[in-house]
Amino acid sequence: VEYDGTSYHGWQLQKNVPTVQGSIEKVLGKILGAPTRVHGAGRTDAGVHAQGQVAHFLSNWARSLVELQRACNALLPPDISIAELTQAPDGFHARHSARAKRYVYTIRNAPLRSPLRRLYCLHVASRLDVSLMQEAAEHLLGSHDFAAFGSPTDGTPSTVREMWEARFESGEQGDTWHFVICGSGFLRYMVRSIVGTLLWTGTGKIRPEEFRLVLESRDRSRSGPTAPPHGLCLVSVEYGVGDATES
Amino acid sequence: VEYDGTSYHGWQLQKNVPTVQGSIEKVLGKILGAPTRVHGAGRTDAGVHAQGQVAHFLSNWARSLVELQRACNALLPPDISIAELTQAPDGFHARHSARAKRYVYTIRNAPLRSPLRRLYCLHVASRLDVSLMQEAAEHLLGSHDFAAFGSPTDGTPSTVREMWEARFESGEQGDTWHFVICGSGFLRYMVRSIVGTLLWTGTGKIRPEEFRLVLESRDRSRSGPTAPPHGLCLVSVEYGVGDATES
Question: Around A68, how many Cα atoms within 13 Å sit in the side-chain half-sphere?
């Protein structure tokens, strides 16, 4: 599922406010003629975007999947689309079967704000030293207790996760940076809280070594502010045997 | 001036609807303490964006231009910004002094629509032969009567304009094309009407040679539909002696 999160109160169904899950369930309900529960891999927060969210649902649709996908995309609003629809293997669960998720947080580092780029990247006016941010980000690699950066979302109380990628890539435009992070799973607000703390490093407020100490502290009060949601995008979710990123 | 045209009824001031000119005049009026008329180089239509619109106004602001620019950007809405503010030479007029304008029309050619890219490019699901579109576009180069593609906007009834560039560039993403067109001036709806007709060429409805016949006909009823505004962006306006594109 691809979506522009700007107008939604996040992925997860809530009463009386628009959510991505709610919009998809409404459309599937109409097409399938029965209430249909949709389970997403990642519960993105209000304002967060997705290029490659994955979700599953049960149905006894008898016609082709191409027809079902087309019907969904015809009824879904312009800011949500089903990019791919396939039959899942038995026992598949979008969230429980996920082995890895990849997020990208996009930062535009330039003196002035840009109207045409305001919706999908965070504008930072102060000059950032991205090499220091990259140095700090490397401390995230491997298995750590990430309690300093978020709280568990699921039943499990563990705050340990494993990260395989955490790096800055320069964007197509010279003033833009993509922070790419890929790991076994993410706590609530984790990527945005990491980005907020990396921004401290980039502006010289803390050194990369101090970033490591924040991580090791497991103390939420020591991390930086949660970066705004609109810079964040859930890029992909990876599953099963044969995945390069399998844990 | 950079702006996201999505929420505006175009550049030009109109009663009771939001326009870009209206928003800037309101802000300047507040800062300068007097009603201030703003003259734009190009009157972009409703929904059209700009990266490099140019506008002038008269004022007796006594402090620095940096302060004025900062004050404007602080009061302007997030979808409009003053990217650069300088003192114009005597007799400068944003529209009358302009020697060239450059527009880019962005097309995304892919089977499915994309929520994250819907605001700034036209989605075309049918497969386009961009080499045919490029071949057709070359007929636009030079001086022509463009009456087939639009009507004059200004006092002058002439529909003759000169084009120096008209080419397709592939975008950063593999499925995206930028149609870049640079010329001495543009009739109302001209770029969008050209794009609508080029799309006829790209889908095989007419051959590049027939595109030339449409141009030569000077007959508005023979050109294609006006392409939607959201794919169009006024990229730059060029002035004066020494410009590469001076006529």
Answer: 18
Instruction: Tell if the CB–CB gap between A2 and B116 is shorter than 8 Å.
Output: yes
Dump pLDDT digits (tens) for B114-162.
Answer: 999 999 999 999 999 999 999 999 999 999 999 999 988 766 789 999 9
Residue B51 and residue A78: Cβ atoms within 8 Å? no
The residue type at B18: P
Handedness of CA A12, A14, A16, A21 (dihedral sign): positive
In B, minimum Cα distance to A69 occurs at B112
Global confidence as pTM: 0.92
In angstroms, the separation between the Cα of residue A4 and the nearest Cα of chain B is 5
- State pLDDT tens for residues A23-79: 999 999 999 999 999 999 999 999 999 999 999 999 999 999 999 999 999 999 999
Q: Which chain B residues have a beta carbon less than 8 Å from that of A115?
A: 2-4, 78-81
**Phi (first) and psi of residue A220, to 5 degrees:** -55, -30
Could you tell me the mean pLDDT of each successive run of 10 residues in chain A, 247 residues long?
A: 98 96 98 96 96 96 96 98 96 95 98 96 97 98 97 83 97 93 96 98 97 97 97 95 41
d(CA B78, CA B83): 13
For the stretch B82-91, contacts whose Cβ atoms lie closer than 8 Å and that sit 24 or more positions apart, written own/partner, are B82/B1, B82/B24, B83/A112, B83/B1, B83/B2, B83/B52, B88/B56
Let me know: does A63 contact A87? Beta carbons within 8 Å. no
3-class state of residue A168 by DSSP: strand
CA A181 to chain centroid, in Å, comes to 9
B116: nearest CB among A49, A115, A116: A49
Q: A115 vs B73: CB contact, 8 Å cut-off?
A: no
A with B: how many residue pairs have Cβ under 8 Å apart?
52
Tokens (6 digits) for B91: 């007799």
